[in-house]
Amino acid sequence: MTVPKPVPARELDEFLTRAVSSVSVLGDLRAALASGERQLRIKQGFDPTHANLHLGHAISLRKLRTLSRWGHEIVLIVGDWTTQIGDPTDRDLTRPLKSRDEVMANAQSYLDQFHLIVPRENARVVLQDEWYGTFGLRDIIELSSRFTAQQMLAREEFRKRLDKKTPIPIKDLLYPLLQAYDSVAIKADVEFGGTDQLFNILAGRELQEQIGQRPQAVFIVEMLEGLDGDQMHKSKPATAIWLVDPPSVVYGKVMAIQDQLMPHYFEWATEMPLGEVRTILDALARKELHPREAKRALARRITAELHSSAAAEEAERAFDRLHKEGAAPTDIDVITVDRDGAKEVPIVELIVQAGLEKSKRAARTLVEQGAVRVDRERATLETRVPTSGELLMQLGPRRFARIRFR
């Protein structure tokens, strides 16, 4: 077992406040980390509802990496059972069930990305199947008896459904209980989660106390906004910055965030020293630094942290070639489309045939908004594209594809 390290007060202060919404039993946790008197078991759970993790997840992953460096044990719980139920968090509708094959495929992707940030040393990964695989009806009844329906229905998401007279399946009421039992199963000392997980994590703390375990500290990190200004979420993939996005995509997405979100991104989504963060934000507030230049610095930093400094520099050059010089990116996907004997194809049909949009309605909306260009020329609903040779298609500011006909 790794011997934990005492943590200097200044380093600990930043850890406990930067990108942190709240910490329960803060004094006890601070004392335990400061002294290094015992190794803490830190729990982080992920439901693999999507194939990838996003930049918002990196907030807690960097915290876990720090705790690992300090000598504490990190336990990643992959929610292979809770994902099949579906967390009602931030939803006023129930989540559709996923097959186990789909869940496990996503879980493997999560593990690969988890270790992009959190080292394997002092970390272990467990599936809920280790305990729920042997759970029977008696176990479920016993677990359910420890909480009341009133406690579950006090949750905001369920109150919304009650107000709207939207059905609340019993399985949705079980979700917080299963997540809570995860803490009991691994004897967690601390559980990490976003603000949307507070109810579930507090349930884990209460269940541990009932069973006679030392109740876990609750460490709640802030939730980063996506490109649309709302919370970055796996259910809105188009507005998220994914950990596996290529450097040019990461850079371009950061450049597309709203200016008012930059303080959160600088402080929560980077490891830039806080002194530098405050210098930049102060310069922005005094209008001594143009928002675009601040955002370029932010995009370089985030891209470098997810990839490398060299990759960030090349991503910036590619961005400038695209937006300043009008040049297309060099790494454009090539899509082959059957011409089916036609000499021309309507632009809306071509967008759907190429898989760039799923429906003609969505493609038509893009064209009507003036967001579609063919070989640099803006397309209209009347545009018909010759099916000979190769063409460059652009949809919006960042989506490019080369179309070839056969």
The radius of gyration is: 24 Å
User: Under CATH, the topology of the largest domain is which?
Assistant: Rossmann fold
Range of strand content: 5-15%
How many angstroms separate the termini?
Answer: 61 Å
Helix content: 40-55%
Number of strands: 13
Name given to the CATH homologous superfamily of the largest domain: HUPs
User: How is the largest sheet built, in terms of strand order?
Assistant: 1-6-5-2-3-4
Quickly name the level 1 CATH class of the largest domain.
Answer: Alpha Beta
What composes the largest sheet? 6 strands, mixed
Number of domains: 3
Return the average pLDDT rounded to an integer: 89
Class by SSE composition: alpha/beta
Shape: globular
Uncertain segments are none
Task: Report what the structure shows.
By secondary structure, the chain is α/β, with parallel strands linked by helices. It folds into 3 domains: 9-224, 3-Layer(aba) Sandwich (Rossmann fold), CATH 3.40.50.620; 245-323, Tyrosyl-Transfer RNA Synthetase (Orthogonal Bundle), CATH 1.10.240; 333-405, Roll (Structural Genomics Hypothetical 15.5 Kd Protein In mrcA-pckA Intergenic Region, Chain A), CATH 3.10.290.10. It has 18 helices and 13 strands. The strands form 3 sheets. The chain has a 6-stranded mixed β-sheet with strand order 1-6-5-2-3-4, sandwiched between helices. Strand 9 and strand 10 form a beta hairpin. Helix 12 (247-255) runs antiparallel to helix 15 (291-306), helix 15 (291-306) packs across helix 16 and helix 17 crosses helix 18 (360-368). The model has no long low-confidence stretch (mean pLDDT 89).
